[in-house]
Amino acid sequence: MAKKPGTNPKGEFAFFNVVYEDDSQRSNRRVPSELLGGLDGDEPARNFIMEQDREIAEKGGRPALEIKRLERVGAKKK
């Protein structure tokens, strides 16, 4: 059964665009918001996404790519 609109808590996930060493890009990768913030900022997102990539690569039988750049979706450019 479908959920009613507005039943998902807002801000549960932060979204990131990931650029890999071969310049390929994956958009809107979800990271739980509770991992972010504090003194580490967005660095825990990198570790979370790297772990996901390792699992995906293992299932696909190919090596995981290194992350070149990580950008939070909607964040202002410095």
TrEMBL record:
<feature type="region of interest" description="Disordered">
    <location>
        <begin position="25"/>
        <end position="44"/>
    </location>
</feature>
<protein>
    <submittedName>
        <fullName>Uncharacterized protein</fullName>
    </submittedName>
</protein>
